[in-house]
Write a structure and sequence with these properties.
- This protein has a domain of about 100 residues: GMP Synthetase, Chain A, domain 3.
- It contains 3 helices and 7 strands; from the N terminus they run E-E-H-H-E-E-H-E-E-E.
- It has a 5-stranded mixed beta sheet, with helices on one face. It has a two-stranded antiparallel ribbon with strand order 1-2.
- The N and C termini lie far apart (about 145 Å).
Length: about 210
Amino acid sequence: MTEKETLGHPVSDKAVSCPECNQPLLQETKAPQGKKPRRLVIIVAAVAVCAIAAALFLLARPAMAVSAAISGLEGPDLPPIQEIQAAKEQYDALSGLQKGFVSNSALLNQKYEERKTEDCTKKANQIVSTIRAGGIGCTATYENDVLHIVEDFNVNYSLVMLNANTIVGPNIASASGTAKRGFEEMGYPEVSVIIEARISGVVICTAKDGTLTL
């Protein structure tokens, strides 16, 4: 017989009352074999629930981070979508203006070239008229920013050759320089002036923009 102290009385597996005072005794209860105590089951279940909750939290962290990042895009650090759309519309408008500037620039360049050709051709004709008025055969053409003047002397060949470097050369050099400065004053500094002195079609000297080259 096994005895335990319970409420100050000996406890027996079989006795139901105290032999001394005849008071009811608590009977020792043993857990049935093969079954775990309820307390242990509750503890194990609680631990399992906590583990599952922790696992779900860890799995949810990446999604929470992405959600926070997305929601952060709508925060005060970035402008509202309306401002972004307005900025894009302004950019598109500026791009359109830039295209317009390029188009207008090409048109202005075309008009400039047309006006320059007209002015330079008129100047060439004036030079030809002036030289011919002096009784000297002359032609002048304008092309690719070059005014090409040809003076053809209808005089004795030997006389021209004798004076080519002393008279004709300096004269055409001076004339080409004067014409060059005239084009600069007209607003066409890119135009060059070439004057050829010839006799019977043979070039004896050439000047360009104020300098004797041949």
